[in-house]
Write a structure and sequence with these properties.
By secondary structure, the chain is of the alpha/beta class. The chain is built from 3 helices and 5 strands. It has a domain of 70 residues: Nucleotidyltransferase, domain 5 (2-Layer Sandwich), CATH 3.30.420. Helix content is 36%, strand content 16%. The longest helix has 22 residues. It is elongated and about 115 Å long. It starts with 20 loop residues before the first helix and ends in a 6-residue tail after the last strand. The relative contact order is 0.11.
Length: 138
Protein backbone atom coordinates (compact mmCIF):
# COMPACT_ATOMS: atom_id res chain seq x y z
CA UNK A 1 0.00 0.00 0.00
CA UNK A 2 1.37 3.29 -1.04
CA UNK A 3 1.20 6.37 1.04
CA UNK A 4 -1.88 8.59 0.31
CA UNK A 5 -3.59 6.08 -1.88
CA UNK A 6 -7.09 4.99 -0.89
CA UNK A 7 -8.56 1.69 -1.80
CA UNK A 8 -11.58 1.72 -4.03
CA UNK A 9 -14.45 -0.59 -3.32
CA UNK A 10 -16.23 -2.13 -6.20
CA UNK A 11 -19.83 -0.85 -6.61
CA UNK A 12 -22.80 -3.02 -7.43
CA UNK A 13 -22.60 -4.49 -10.91
CA UNK A 14 -25.24 -3.20 -13.36
CA UNK A 15 -28.55 -5.09 -13.31
CA UNK A 16 -29.36 -6.85 -16.56
CA UNK A 17 -32.87 -8.04 -15.60
CA UNK A 18 -36.06 -6.01 -15.46
CA UNK A 19 -37.82 -5.91 -12.11
CA UNK A 20 -41.46 -6.74 -12.87
CA UNK A 21 -42.79 -6.60 -9.31
CA UNK A 22 -43.80 -2.90 -9.48
CA UNK A 23 -45.49 -3.53 -12.85
CA UNK A 24 -47.51 -6.42 -11.40
CA UNK A 25 -48.51 -4.30 -8.40
CA UNK A 26 -49.77 -1.50 -10.63
CA UNK A 27 -51.69 -3.93 -12.84
CA UNK A 28 -53.40 -5.56 -9.86
CA UNK A 29 -54.47 -2.17 -8.52
CA UNK A 30 -55.94 -1.30 -11.94
CA UNK A 31 -57.82 -4.62 -12.08
CA UNK A 32 -59.35 -3.96 -8.66
CA UNK A 33 -60.38 -0.45 -9.73
CA UNK A 34 -62.04 -1.80 -12.92
CA UNK A 35 -63.84 -4.54 -10.99
CA UNK A 36 -65.28 -2.00 -8.58
CA UNK A 37 -66.28 0.59 -11.21
CA UNK A 38 -67.67 -1.75 -13.92
CA UNK A 39 -71.06 -2.36 -12.22
CA UNK A 40 -71.46 1.37 -11.68
CA UNK A 41 -70.94 2.08 -15.37
CA UNK A 42 -73.42 -0.60 -16.48
CA UNK A 43 -76.30 0.83 -14.46
CA UNK A 44 -75.65 4.51 -14.94
CA UNK A 45 -79.18 5.30 -16.17
CA UNK A 46 -81.55 5.62 -13.24
CA UNK A 47 -85.24 5.31 -14.00
CA UNK A 48 -88.32 5.67 -11.87
CA UNK A 49 -90.72 3.42 -13.74
CA UNK A 50 -94.47 3.98 -13.41
CA UNK A 51 -96.58 1.50 -11.48
CA UNK A 52 -99.45 -0.40 -13.13
CA UNK A 53 -101.68 -3.10 -11.73
CA UNK A 54 -102.11 -5.08 -14.96
CA UNK A 55 -98.44 -5.77 -15.54
CA UNK A 56 -96.71 -8.98 -14.63
CA UNK A 57 -93.04 -9.77 -14.86
CA UNK A 58 -92.26 -11.89 -17.89
CA UNK A 59 -91.61 -15.53 -17.20
CA UNK A 60 -88.34 -16.97 -18.34
CA UNK A 61 -88.77 -19.32 -21.30
CA UNK A 62 -89.36 -22.86 -20.14
CA UNK A 63 -88.10 -26.04 -21.64
CA UNK A 64 -89.02 -29.70 -21.55
CA UNK A 65 -86.62 -32.57 -22.14
CA UNK A 66 -87.62 -35.15 -24.75
CA UNK A 67 -85.41 -38.26 -24.83
CA UNK A 68 -85.26 -41.07 -27.40
CA UNK A 69 -83.27 -44.10 -26.25
CA UNK A 70 -81.69 -46.88 -28.38
CA UNK A 71 -84.86 -48.96 -28.41
CA UNK A 72 -86.98 -46.03 -29.65
CA UNK A 73 -88.74 -45.47 -26.31
CA UNK A 74 -89.77 -41.82 -25.79
CA UNK A 75 -89.36 -40.09 -22.41
CA UNK A 76 -90.81 -36.67 -21.61
CA UNK A 77 -89.09 -35.14 -18.55
CA UNK A 78 -87.80 -38.63 -17.60
CA UNK A 79 -91.28 -40.23 -17.77
CA UNK A 80 -91.90 -42.92 -20.42
CA UNK A 81 -94.60 -41.93 -22.91
CA UNK A 82 -96.44 -43.65 -25.75
CA UNK A 83 -97.41 -41.84 -28.97
CA UNK A 84 -100.94 -40.61 -28.09
CA UNK A 85 -99.97 -39.82 -24.49
CA UNK A 86 -96.94 -37.88 -25.72
CA UNK A 87 -99.10 -35.84 -28.11
CA UNK A 88 -101.49 -35.00 -25.24
CA UNK A 89 -98.68 -33.88 -22.93
CA UNK A 90 -97.05 -31.77 -25.64
CA UNK A 91 -100.39 -30.13 -26.48
CA UNK A 92 -100.96 -29.35 -22.78
CA UNK A 93 -97.48 -27.85 -22.55
CA UNK A 94 -98.14 -25.73 -25.66
CA UNK A 95 -101.42 -24.44 -24.19
CA UNK A 96 -99.62 -23.35 -20.99
CA UNK A 97 -96.77 -21.61 -22.80
CA UNK A 98 -96.41 -21.74 -26.61
CA UNK A 99 -92.81 -20.48 -26.34
CA UNK A 100 -91.72 -23.60 -24.48
CA UNK A 101 -88.55 -25.07 -25.95
CA UNK A 102 -88.04 -28.79 -26.47
CA UNK A 103 -84.56 -30.12 -25.75
CA UNK A 104 -84.38 -33.23 -27.90
CA UNK A 105 -81.84 -35.83 -26.76
CA UNK A 106 -81.73 -38.76 -29.17
CA UNK A 107 -79.33 -41.70 -29.03
CA UNK A 108 -77.17 -41.92 -32.13
CA UNK A 109 -78.49 -45.44 -32.81
CA UNK A 110 -82.09 -44.17 -33.15
CA UNK A 111 -83.26 -44.11 -36.79
CA UNK A 112 -83.73 -40.64 -38.24
CA UNK A 113 -87.35 -41.43 -39.09
CA UNK A 114 -88.21 -41.87 -35.41
CA UNK A 115 -86.62 -38.49 -34.57
CA UNK A 116 -88.63 -36.81 -37.35
CA UNK A 117 -91.80 -38.51 -36.11
CA UNK A 118 -91.32 -37.11 -32.59
CA UNK A 119 -90.52 -33.68 -34.04
CA UNK A 120 -93.76 -33.85 -36.06
CA UNK A 121 -95.75 -34.62 -32.89
CA UNK A 122 -94.22 -31.57 -31.21
CA UNK A 123 -94.97 -29.36 -34.19
CA UNK A 124 -98.59 -30.57 -34.37
CA UNK A 125 -98.96 -29.78 -30.67
CA UNK A 126 -97.89 -26.18 -31.34
CA UNK A 127 -94.30 -26.32 -30.12
CA UNK A 128 -91.91 -25.11 -32.80
CA UNK A 129 -88.78 -24.37 -30.75
CA UNK A 130 -86.70 -27.54 -30.76
CA UNK A 131 -83.08 -27.72 -29.65
CA UNK A 132 -80.92 -30.74 -30.36
CA UNK A 133 -78.60 -31.74 -27.50
CA UNK A 134 -75.27 -33.40 -28.32
CA UNK A 135 -72.03 -34.23 -26.56
CA UNK A 136 -69.02 -32.04 -27.40
CA UNK A 137 -66.42 -33.78 -29.57
CA UNK A 138 -63.08 -34.50 -27.96
Amino acid sequence: MAFGRLERTQGDPPMSEINVTPLVDVMLVLVVIFIITAPLLASSIRLDLPKAEGTQPGDAPRFVVLVLDKSGQVFLNDKPMAGPQLAEQLAATARQNPDTEIQLRADQAVPYGKVVEVMGLAHQAGLSRIGFVAEPSK
